[in-house]
Amino acid sequence: MADVHSKAARSKNMRAIKAKNTQPELLIRQALYARGFRYRLHDKGLPGTPDIVLKKYKALIFINGCFWHGHRCHLSKIPQTRTAFWLAKISDNIARDQRHQTQLLASEWRYAVIWECALKGKTRLRADYLIDCVEDWIINSNSKSLEISGASVK
Ligand SMILES: [Zn+2]
């Protein structure tokens, strides 16, 4: 009985991780909006369905849940039960992300990946610092990609 409950709770958690419009995503959206950026959301026509599409700058932003997308950090602990299942699932997700990134690198678009651990928990970066980095990349940089992870914590 207890096991049934924990499975249900876990799959609820997994859905939350995969969901769109997560708290970290809203934070980035609101901060960019406040700085005058206008964007579209969740464009299914682009590889990986980017969370934020800044057409004017040919820039895309993905806000990735660390567990779901297989980031190596403190937020992505593999569950003790059905471990093989989760490992397979997550390595599929990593492979899919890499495929999408390869497609984007060959396209006119640039992309930024902001990991969840940069936005929450003990590794969280200062919000204005993070948004400064993103804004600078959007406006001033011509690099094809940007990746922002949480701070390393001793
Ligand atoms: Zn992470």
From TrEMBL:
Coiled coil spans: none
EC supergroup of this enzyme: hydrolase
Gene name for this UniProt entry: vsr
Similarity-based family: Belongs to the vsr family.
A Pfam family assignment: Vsr
Job description of the protein: May nick specific sequences that contain T:G mispairs resulting from m5C-deamination.
EC number: 3.1.-.-
GO molecular function: endonuclease activity
Keyword DNA damage found: yes
Organism whose genome encodes this protein: Undibacterium aquatile
Record protein name field: Very short patch repair endonuclease
Keywords per UniProt: DNA damage, DNA repair, Endonuclease, Hydrolase, Nuclease
